Amino acid sequence: MRFRGKIALITGSSRGIGKALALTLAREGATVVVHYRRNAAAAENTVAEVRAAGGDGWSVAADVEDLTALEGVFDAVATRHGRLDLFVANAAATAFKPAMELKAHHLERTFNMNVRSFVIGAQRAATLMGPGGRILVISSYGSVRAFPTYANLGASKAALEAWVRFFAEELGPRDINVNALNAGIVATDSADFFYGQPGMPPMATVVARIPKRRAACPAEIARAAAFLLSEDASYVTGTVLMVDGGLTVAAPPFRGEMSRA
Ligand SMILES: NC(=O)c1ccc[n+]([C@@H]2O[C@H](COP(=O)([O-])OP(=O)(O)OC[C@H]3O[C@@H](n4cnc5c(N)ncnc54)[C@H](OP(=O)(O)O)[C@@H]3O)[C@@H](O)[C@H]2O)c1
């Protein structure tokens, strides 16, 4: 029960990794604010599962690209609880395009949705936190590796990892830890969407090059995130934890493609 009595806000927790984390924290006693954008039914379903898992929770809608809506989420948390213990910036989106085809509005939208929302969100979260507070952002291996159509999102993830270091340095004296979890390929709707884009190879061909030979399941990412949010990680701040099954340490020639593996 590492999260008994803790109030956690997880953006984009109506499905995927965010939902898995909501349930992981709920099983250890947290009250989870389930944030989503459009799918209210999915969010309510997550809240019901959070309660069934032994936690408590409620849902709040906001497009994180919209600053006023984002501020409204923190206003609602402040009104309801007067404080926040754990803030996880998990929601993310982009238009997948080659770098040469990106227009200014693609850059602005992806930056606002992913980076600006984290910076403003972390400021608001820290204002509601006391000693022991935790801020976590979900990054991806596109922050440190290049692959087709991911430039805009990958560059925004790299920016997030830099912001993590600056916030960690500034909030360390207040005993608020700020970290990033960098995920590899995770079996979610959004991974299916990415590999469903025209010209993408089947996910199975990519997974065969990962040392673990499989995608992560959302619960595996959630368990690593829970570590970073817990007292077990009390001295861990300003870091990026890779949770990628070894994806980013492997390089060509790939073992699975040798004639004698
Ligand atoms: N899946 C992977 O393979 C993978 C790998 C590495 C990193 N990640 C990262 O992990 C995080 C979660 O990814 P995921 O695959 O679980 O889910 P996702 O499909 O990226 O996001 C799903 C959640 O985010 C919300 N959301 C999306 N756009 C939003 C916006 N503009 N404003 C507010 N909420 C928004 C959705 O709400 P609605 O359903 O209501 O729209 C939903 O709750 C992301 O940061 C992603 O980049 C994923």
Describe this structure in words.
By secondary structure, this protein is of the alpha/beta class. The chain has helices spanning 16-27, 40-52, 67-81, 104-128, 151-171, 189-195, 203-207, 218-229, and strands at residues 7-10, 31-36, 56-61, 86-89, 134-140, 177-183, 240-243. The chain has a 7-stranded parallel sheet with strand order 3-2-1-4-5-6-7, with helices on both faces. β4, α4 (104-128) and β5 form a beta-alpha-beta unit. α1 packs across α8. The mean pLDDT is 97. It binds NADP nicotinamide-adenine-dinucleotide phosphate (NAP).
How is the secondary structure organized here?
Elements: E1 7-10, H1 16-27, E2 31-36, H2 40-52, E3 56-61, H3 67-81, E4 86-89, H4 104-128, E5 134-140, H5 151-171, E6 177-183, H6 189-195, H7 203-207, H8 218-229, E7 240-243
Parallel strand pairs: 1-2, 1-4, 2-3, 4-5, 5-6, 6-7
Helix pairs in contact: 1-2, 1-8, 3-4, 4-5
Bound molecules: NADP nicotinamide-adenine-dinucleotide phosphate.
Structural class: alpha/beta
**What is the first-to-last residue Cα distance?**
44 Å
Mean pLDDT: 97
Radius of gyration: 18 Å
Q: Order of SSEs, N→C?
A: EHEHEHEHEHEHHHE
> What is the third-level CATH name, the topology?
Rossmann fold
Fourth-level CATH superfamily? NAD(P)-binding Rossmann-like Domain
Please bin the fraction of helical residues: 40-55%
User: What share of the residues does DSSP label as strand, in percent?
Assistant: 5-15%
Query: What ligand species are in this complex?
Result: NADP nicotinamide-adenine-dinucleotide phosphate
Individual helix count: 8
Query: How many β strands by DSSP?
Result: 7
How many domains make up the 3D coordinates?
1
